[in-house]
Design a protein that fits this description.
The structure is a homodimer of 420-residue chains. With 420 residues, the first copy, chain A, is of the alpha/beta class. Chain A has two domains: 137 residues, Alpha-Beta Complex (Aspartate Aminotransferase, domain 1); 251 residues, Type I PLP-dependent aspartate aminotransferase-like (Major domain) (Aspartate Aminotransferase, domain 2, 3-Layer(aba) Sandwich). Helix content of chain A is 39%, strand content 14%. Chain A is built from 14 helices and 15 strands. In chain A, strands 4-10-9-8-7-5-6 form a seven-stranded mixed β-sheet, sandwiched between helices. In chain A, strands 11-12-15-14 form a four-stranded antiparallel β-sheet. In chain A, strands 1-3 form a two-stranded antiparallel ribbon. In chain A, strand 5, helix 6 and strand 6 form a beta-alpha-beta unit. The longest helix of chain A has 23 residues. Chains A and B meet through helix 2, helix 3, helix 5, helix 6 and helix 11 of A and helix 2, helix 3, helix 5, helix 6 and helix 9 of B.
C-alpha cells in the first residue's frame, strides 16, 4: 500500500498505462474524478471532427455517405466497442441512446419470452438501478402485459424463479459502484428459463466484460463515460447472435431494414445486429465516439482491459484506504464494497448531511467528483488518465475540507442541475 | 420567366436572400441541388463545434451541463425550430431521430385514440410515404392492435372515415415533391374524430408551415435537410399543447422525467413537451444543428419563410420550365405537380431507364442531385444558397447529358449505397 505522495509518484513512474494520459486534453490544475459521468476529451477528437465537418460534410457533402463510409459508422464503431466487452465482430452497433436501445432489447426480449416461456410474466430489476432503465422497463412491461418487480439489496438471487421472463441489471451500480457477478447471475436466470439484459454503462472501458463467456442475451451501454465519446455520445447495443435474427425489435426504422435504399413500403429486418439500428445515424457524434473508443483500444498495447482493471483496482483501493485513514470520524459511510470482484471503477460515500456542499467545495479546489441525490459523493477512476498522485491529492483535499468545515460556506450549498 | 443566363444573373443580383449564401461553405465548381437530402455546411458550424469540444467539453467537462446549459439545448434548439413551423415556445424539442420521434408520437396518439374513440382502429398513411414512417407505423399498429392502411395516389380524402384513429402523412413527399394541404386534411381527419401526425422532414425550413393554424396534433421532422444541421442531425418533435400533458409516450427515458436529477425509481413525466425527451441529448450534434437552424432564422431579416418560399417557387418553376424546353422528348416524366400550392422545394422526374446513371453523369459534371429507387431523379432547391444561375446551368448540363448520351458511359452505372 502506497502511503506517501512519493510512493504514488513512483507508482505513476512505473505505470505501464502512463503513456495513455498523453492521449487526452486535461484541464490544468485539476483532478478529474468524474470520467464515470463524462469521459475526458481525447486529443484526436477536435481534429477528427474538423475533418468530418470541413471535408466530409462541407466539401464532399452527400457523397460522404459512400466515400467516407458514413453509412458503415455505426457498425465500425460497434466492432471496436465489441472488442472491449467480449462480443464478436458484427454483433454490436453504436446507435441512439442507452434508453432507446434498452427499449429495443426489452421489446425483443419480451417477445422471445412470450414465445418460449409464456407463463413467465416478470421483469426483475433492482430498486437501485439507474432510473432511466427502470422507467423504460416499467413502460415496456406495462405495454406488453408484464410486471416489473424491483428487488432490494441482496434480493436478486432469491427473486429468480420460474415466473421470471427477463432479468434486467446494470453490471456496475451507478451510485454505489457495486459490481454484479455477470456470469453467475446470467446462469441462474437461464436455469430459471429467463433471458438477461445487461446495462454496461459503468462497465464498458472500465472493467473487463466478456458477454460471450457469461452467455448473456442482450446488452446496452453508454458512449460518454469510460468510452470518452463526448457529451451525450451515442450508446451501443449488443444481441447474442442466437437471438438477433429471431425477432424484430419495436423501433423498426429504415436503417434496420434489409435494403434501406430500395425504399420498400414494407419492413424487412436486416440480418443480425443491423436490425437494431433505427433512424439515420448522427455522424458528428459517432465520429467523436470513435475517437473516444480508440483511446481505450490504445491500451491493448499495454495489457488492455486487464491492465486497466489492475490499475483501476489499485486507484480505488488507494482512495478508499486513504479516506479511511484521513477522514475517520468525519461522517462518510462507504457505499462501495471493497472486495475486488464486487466493485467497478469508482468509490462512493453517503453522508447524513452536506454531501452536495462537500462535492462543491472539492470542485472549488479543482477536484471534480460528483454528487448523486440524495446524499452520495461519487469518485470515478479512469486508468487511462487518472494517476496515483491524483488520488493521493484528492483525498488530502477531501480531508482538509471535512476537517476545516470549509464545505459549510454558503456558496457551496447553492444547487444547480446535476447530470450523469 | 427568365429565359437567358443573363436574366438569371440579374434575378440573383436583385434577390433579397442573396446575402445568406455567404453563411455557407459551398464546394467550388459545384451546383448543389441536394439540400433536401443533406443541407450544406454553415460557416459557423466548425467554429462552434471547436468551442463545444475544446472549451465546454475539454476544459469545463461535466460542469458544462450547467455552465454551458447543455441540459437546455434540446429545448433551446427546439424553440428556434418552432419559429419556422408555426409552433409556440416550449412546444417543440430537438431530440433523437425522426423515426424514434415518430414512434413516440404514434404511441401517444394511439393511446389518446383508444381513450377518445375506441372503435376507430385504423392508422391511415400513403404507399408513397417515406419508408421509415411506414415501418415505424406498421410496428406501432401491430403492437397496439391497430391496422395500418395505405392509400394510393389521390385516395387519402376518400379513405378518411369513422374507422380512422390516426392520419399519418408526410407534408411534402420525399420522392415526388408533392405537397399536401395540411389545414384541409387535418380538418377532414378531425371531422372524422381522428388525430393527425405530420412529418415535416421536407417542409421545415423549406416551405411555410403553421402547425397551430392547421390545428395539427403532432409533428416530427428532420434536422439534416433544409435545417442544415449536419449528417444525421437530431430530429424534432412537436405536440399540440392540448395533448402534451394528457398521456405518456412509450420511450419514457430519464430526460423526460419531471425531475431527472432526483433519481426517483418511479417515472413521473415532465409537463409539456419535455416528456418527449428520452435519453441524454447528443450535445455535439445538437450544437451543429443549432448553427444550421440559425442559417434559416437569419432569413427573418429578409422576409423569412415567405421570402424563402417565393424564391423556392421561382427556382423550381425555372427548373421545370427549362427542362420542358431543353429536354423535351428525352424520356423525363415530371412527378412534381406544378401548381404552387401542390409542391415543396424540389422537382423530380422518373425515367424508364438510366435514372441512376444520369444522376451520376450530372455529379461528374459537378451538378449534385440524387437518385431515388427505382427510377427517380430528384433536384432540391435551397433558397438560402441556391441561385437562379445555378438552376439555369444545371438544366444545361442535364440537357447536354441526355442529348449526347454521355450518361451511357459504363462508369455511371456502377451502384453505390445511396442515402437520403
Amino acid at each position: 500500500m502506497a502511503t506517501t505522495r512519493e510512493d504514488c509518484i513512483e507508482l505513476d513512474r512505473r505505470d505501464p498505462l502512463a503513456p495513455l494520459r498523453e492521449l487526452f486534453e486535461l484541464p490544468p490544475q485539476s483532478i478529474y474524478l468524474d470520467g464515470n459521468s463524462l469521459g475526458a476529451l481525447p486529443k484526436a477528437t477536435a481534429g477528427r471532427l474538423a475533418q468530418v465537418v470541413r471535408q466530409e460534410w462541407g466539401r464532399d457533402l452527400i457523397g460522404s455517405w459512400n466515400s467516407a463510409d458514413w453509412i458503415g459508422l455505426p457498425g465500425r464503431v460497434g466492432d471496436k466497442i465489441a472488442r472491449l466487452v467480449g462480443a464478436g465482430a458484427s454483433e454490436l452497433v453504436a446507435a441512439d441512446s442507452t434508453s432507446v436501445n434498452l427499449y429495443k432489447v426489452l421489446g425483443a426480449a419480451l417477445t422471445i419470452a412470450r414465445s418460449d416461456a409464456p407463463a413467465a410474466r416478470r421483469i426483475l430489476s433492482e430498486h437501485s438501478n439507474f432510473p432511466t432503465d427502470l422507467y423504460i422497463a416499467a413502460g415496456a412491461a406495462r405495454e406488453r402485459g408484464f410486471d416489473l418487480v424491483l428487488a432490494g439489496p441482496g434480493e436478486i438471487e432469491r427473486s429468480i424463479d420460474e415466473r421470471l421472463a427477463v432479468l434486467l441489471l446494470t453490471h456496475v451500480d451507478y451510485r454505489s459502484g457495486r459490481m454484479h457477478d455477470m456470469a453467475r447471475l446470467t446462469r441462474l436466470a437461464h436455469d430459471a428459463g429467463a433471458l438477461v439484459v445487461w446495462d454496461l454503462a459503468h462497465s464498458a472501458g472500465a472493467v473487463p466484460v466478456d458477454l460471450h463467456e457469461a452467455n448473456a442475451d442482450f446488452a446496452v451501454g453508454c458512449g460518454y463515460k469510460y468510452l470518452n465519446g463526448g457529451p451525450g455520445a451515442p450508446a451501443f447495443v449488443w444481441v447474442h447472435p442466437s437471438h438477433a435474427d429471431r425477432f424484430e425489435q419495436p423501433l423498426s426504422g429504415w436503417m434496420g431494414h434489409a435494403a434501406p435504399f430500395e425504399f420498400d413500403a414494407g419492413y424487412r429486418p436486416a440480418g443480425g445486429i443491423a436490425r437494431y439500428l433505427c433512424g439515420t445515424p448522427p455522424i458528428l457524434s459517432l465520429a467523436a465516439l470513435e475517437c473516444g473508443v480508440d483511446t481505450v483500444l490504445a491500451a491493448e498495447r499495454f495489457g488492455g482491459m486487464q491492465a486497466i482493471r489492475r490499475k483501476s483496482l489499485a486507484l480505488s483501493a488507494l482512495f478508499a484506504e486513504r479516506v479511511d485513514a484521513q477522514c475517520a470520524g468525519s461522517g462518510l459511510a462507504r457505499l462501495t464494497p471493497l472486495p475486488d470482484a464486487e466493485r467497478g471503477s469508482q468509490i462512493s460515500y453517503s453522508r447524513a448531511d452536506g454531501a452536495y456542499a462537500i462535492v462543491q467545495a472539492l470542485i472549488a479546489r479543482g477536484v471534480v467528483g460528483d454528487f448523486r441525490a440524495p446524499d452520495v459523493l461519487r469518485f470515478g477512476f479512469t486508468p487511462l488518465y487518472t494517476r496515483h498522485v491524483d488520488v493521493f491529492d484528492a483525498v488530502d483535499h477531501l480531508a482538509a475540507i471535512l476537517r476545516s468545515g470549509e464545505w459549510q460556506q454558503p456558496q457551496f450549498s447553492r444547487r444547480a442541475a446535476v447530470v450523469t
